[in-house]
């Protein structure tokens, strides 16, 4: 009897360990049981990859070879010694006619304005509504910092790029929020209607990267601080 109970207990334990493990579904997706945060991060990285590719295409069309596009995101130490010393720029481009930062969102659904200018409303296909922080608000501190360390008169702009093909826009959204396919037109518009000051690309890149946090874990540490702050805020509500 004892031996039978031992076998049964081992079987139950083995089954529980099995169902806890991420394993492939019929489509071969090994992350079907991944936490929501991990899925959101994977979606965000996919959106950034799409935007980086489209930016490369658009900049080559608009500028030839006369531009700088940072490879991936860049962590800038803008406020050393404070609780939040760094900012993350998803995409940084420098051209003769402007320094541009791009905040990528890989949201699906219908994107609409909110009564709060720092937020946007996302309406899903099943009718659910949620408010999320606007890329415009996220870019504000980054733009202020770049404008404080670069020459006055330079055209320094930020835009929010929605990378998902399943994203639809309200016509009421500000023009600094665009779909990924609008990137070439947005850049062309900046070229024709931005500041007339000609930017020295090498000087601009050197000035910005002087503040780059190059530590191997810079991006992880930055995201950890954001996550901890969000956790603390949730606990205080």
Tell me what you see in this structure.
- Mean pLDDT is about 85; it is low at about 1-10 and about 10-35.
- α2 (about 35-65) packs across α4.
- The protein starts with a helix and ends with a helix.
- The protein contains six helices and eleven strands.
- It has about 240 residues and is an alpha/beta fold.
- It is globular.
- About 25% of the residues are buried.
- How many strands in all? 11
> What is the CA-based Rg, rounded?
22 Å
Strand order of the largest sheet: 1-4-5-9-11
Q: Between the first and last Cα atoms, what is the distance in angstroms?
A: 54 Å
The secondary structure category is alpha/beta
Number of domains as seen in the coordinates = 1
Labels describing this entry:
single chain; 237 residues; alpha/beta; five-stranded mixed β-sheet; globular; disordered N terminus
Please describe the topology of this protein.
Blueprint: H1 2-20, H2 36-63, E1 68-69, E2 74-77, E3 86-89, E4 91-95, E5 98-105, E6 109-113, E7 119-123, E8 129-133, H3 135-149, E9 156-162, E10 167-169, E11 177-179, H4 183-193, H5 201-209, H6 218-236
Parallel strand pairs: 5-9, 6-10, 9-11
Antiparallel strand pairs: 1-4, 2-3, 4-5, 6-7, 7-8
Helix pairs in contact: 2-4
Short structural summary:
By secondary structure, the chain is of the alpha/beta class. The chain has helices spanning 2-20, 36-63, 135-149, 183-193, 201-209, 218-236; strands spanning 68-69, 74-77, 86-89, 91-95, 98-105, 109-113, 119-123, 129-133, 156-162, 167-169, 177-179.
